[in-house]
Design a protein that fits this description.
Layout lengths: L2 H15 L1 E3 H8 L3 H13 L4 E3 L2 E3 L11 H5 L3 H12 L7 E4 L3 H7 L8 E5 L2 H7 L6 E5 L3 E2 L5 E2 L1 H8 L3 E7 L2 E3 L3 E4 L2 H13 E7 L11 E4 L6 E5 L4 H10 L3 E4 L10
Parallel strand pairs: 4-5, 4-9, 5-6, 9-12, 12-14, 14-15
Antiparallel strand pairs: 1-3, 2-3, 7-8, 10-11, 11-13
Helix pairs in contact: 1-3, 2-3, 5-6, 6-7, 8-9
């Protein structure tokens, strides 16, 4: 198969699912890892894909762009893991928490095994799947609603169920954060549901890696000042760090271990 043909196959897959992984393309196309990476380099230079760890995703930039879960799940993996581990340390036994949808909060949910006696309310199918367990000290409540590309349940059913709850803490994942627009999402229905989740919580903890700074979705979930805690990673730019430190209640910058940094 010629390089152009391989690249057309790769582009078709990116358009279909929002992301591709190198190992899957190696198997599908019967070529080497380096050949696939060169193809991705070519496509990235042409502005047709965005290279990420282990593969590539569709190019995102508009305020209404909403990548699917798979597309977002391969971005900033080490950063999300470090953020999630640090955020999990904030939870105390006996706490009722809310967790929004998203790949960062999905990673966060995987760090909750060592936290006993918690009740979790979420509008994320993926988060609920991670937390599904027969542990007697854990209750997991999944809201109803209409499913979005990020596997969130949104709309009137989700909003109504959240408005009747009172949670100790809410852990919120966001599409973007910026001075002015605040924490945003590209999905109007999801923003309404996320706002209801925020209002149900006593404390708001936002989980956002450094790549989210400067991205702006069409709808605001909350102002920067509404975050009691923002957990980000050490890749956050100095100017952004200064703004965030002045606006949020507490800024936590998680260290990413060198062992977790894998060259793309």
């Amino acid at each position: 198969m010629l390089a152009r043909q391989r690249q057309e196959v790769i582009l078709d897959e990116v358009r279909r699912s929002g992301a591709v992984q190198v190992h899957a393309l190696v198997t599908r196309l019967g070529v080497s890892d380096m050949t696939i990476r060169r193809d991705l380099d070519v496509l990235a230079k042409r502005g047709l894909v965005e290279k990420v760890y282990g593969g590539a995703t569709s190019v995102v930039g508009r305020s209404t762009d909403e990548p699917g879960f798979e597309a977002k799940s391969v971005r900033a993996l080490a950063e999300k893991d470090a953020i999630s581990a640090r955020a999990a340390s904030l939870i105390r036994p006996g706490t009722a928490i809310g967790i929004s949808a998203g790949t960062t909060t999905w990673t966060f949910a995987r760090h909750l095994d060592d936290v006993p006696d918690i009740t979790v309310v979420t509008n994320s199918i993926r988060v609920a799947d991670v937390l599904r367990t027969d542990r007697p000290d854990r209750t997991v409540v999944l809201t109803g609603g209409v499913r979005t590309p990020s596997d969130a349940l949104v709309g009137p059913v989700a909003v109504q169920s959240l408005r009747s709850l009172h949670l100790d803490m809410v852990f919120l994942g966001v599409h973007g954060m910026a001075d002015g627009p605040g924490f945003t999402t590209p999905n109007l229905n999801e923003s309404e549901t996320d706002r209801a989740l925020v209002e149900a919580g006593g404390r708001l903890v936002v989980l956002a890696d450094h790549t989210k700074w400067g991205m702006v979705g069409i709808s605001t979930i909350a102002d920067l000042s509404e975050a009691d805690v923002l957990v980000t990673d050490e890749g956050i730019a100095d100017d952004a760090r200064e703004i965030l430190a002045a606006r949020v209640g507490e800024l936590i910058v998680a260290d990413v271990p060198e062992s977790a940094r894998v060259a793309e």
